[in-house]
Amino acid sequence: NNKQEKIDGTDPKNPDTDGDGVTDSKEKTDGTDPKDACKFILASQTLAPSSVWNTSDCDGDGVTNSKEKTDGTDPKDPCKFILASQTVAPNSAWETADCDNDGVTNKQEKIEGTDPKNPDTDGDGVNDGKEKTDGTDSKDPCKFILISQTVAPNSAWETSDCDNDGVTNKQEKNDGTDPKNPDTDGDGVNDGKEKTDGTDSNDPCKFILISQTVAPNSAWETSDCDNDGVTNKQEKIDGTDPKNPDTDGDGVTDGKEKTDGTDATSPCESIVANITLPLSESFLDGDCDNDGLTNREEIGLNPLKPNDSNATTVPDYLEQNNHTDSTDDLEIFNAVTPNGNGENDVLVIRNIESYPENTVTIFNRWGVLVYEVNSYGQNGKFFKGISEGRTTINKNEELPSGVYFYIIKYKNLQGITKQRSGYLYINK
């Protein structure tokens, strides 16, 4: 009643003395102050607030009361507002507060252009306060220190690719790689390429050499991935493979070839006594001395005991004329042991390559032709104890151990046709 209003100091002619949109009587029941426009319960507003109230800023957050009503935020909570709606100067209480608890005051965030309501303005997973102490940029999602990430990055950051390596930031986090470093392990291959290659972006020694497109880091350069005694950097300079201890496959490590003064990229240039590794297939299939016999056929399968038929200390695979004197400088080894040990696995006819016009025929003890070929010793034509196929013997059938008879016809350098014949023995 009017009397009570006089006692309370409110206006008996105004149902809302302070203009906050809540009737005086409701404020009495709510226990709020009908004479203070900023002391009210928001849910109790039933009247249109006054223009003074509308343009005021009860919580001091820089957003007018009416704008907060329009935005659907709380005009009584200084940390519930829309940043873009700030049109008046916030009060000192708001400026010294830290609405997002990121260690940076609201005022400082306004000065720096960060969001006082978002502890991680750029969404990179590092709160704004930590970025200040780290000296990184709170507004750049790609400028941060990885180990400082303590909050979940936002979706925009996760789908971005900060280091442009073809792998999203989120995937890099899942893979354990560095979203700020395109080549996490420093091997010269970017993380995206390692994913497509199927190699390990976290292991500097697991990569494909031809995929290197960026400069490796110093740690990689001073390492020795293949443990051959040569640093990765030096191998790149030398043109050898930093992932293969024996680049040319000759059984001698690249490091040993450096100390020996031989060429680690040339399979036919090495010191045989220094062979310590298995010989590569490409080396075994080669012909270092160009005599028509592969290195495999000449050196044997034991790299520490290469064949040396004439005891010159030079292995057969490096020595072209390693046979003893004979008619037309031709020597026939009459033992064939096709057991895969690399010694006498084929019928060796030394210097047969000098007489390409030749025919070799072999008969078993019953006179059945089991092998016949023209141009023996050319293009891989060698008798390996396997039948060429006749009426009683199947083609490609391994011949049994025993005595056989051979006939070799050839035209010598004077154009005279000659013949050599004799027995040979197959022993398995």
Task: Characterise the protein shown here.
This protein has 428 residues and is of the alpha+beta class. It has 4 domains: 54 residues, no CATH class; 63 residues, no CATH class; 96 residues, no CATH class; 100 residues, Immunoglobulin-like (Sandwich), CATH 2.60.40. It is built from 15 helices and 7 strands. Strands 2-7-6-4-5 form a 5-stranded mixed sheet, with no helix packed on it. It holds the Pfam family TSP3_bac. This is Gliding motility-associated C-terminal domain-containing protein. Keywords: Calcium, Secreted, Signal. It is found in: Secreted.
Rg value: 45 Å
| Topology, number of strands | 7
Q: Average pLDDT, to the nearest integer?
A: 88
Structural class: alpha+beta
* Proportion of strand residues: 5-15%
CATH class wording of the largest domain? Mainly Beta
- Relative helix content: 10-25%
Q: Compute the separation of the termini in Å.
A: 127 Å
> Which spans of ≥5 residues are poorly predicted at pLDDT below 50?
300-305, 309-314, 317-325
Helical segment count: 15
Identify the strand order in the major beta sheet. 2-7-6-4-5
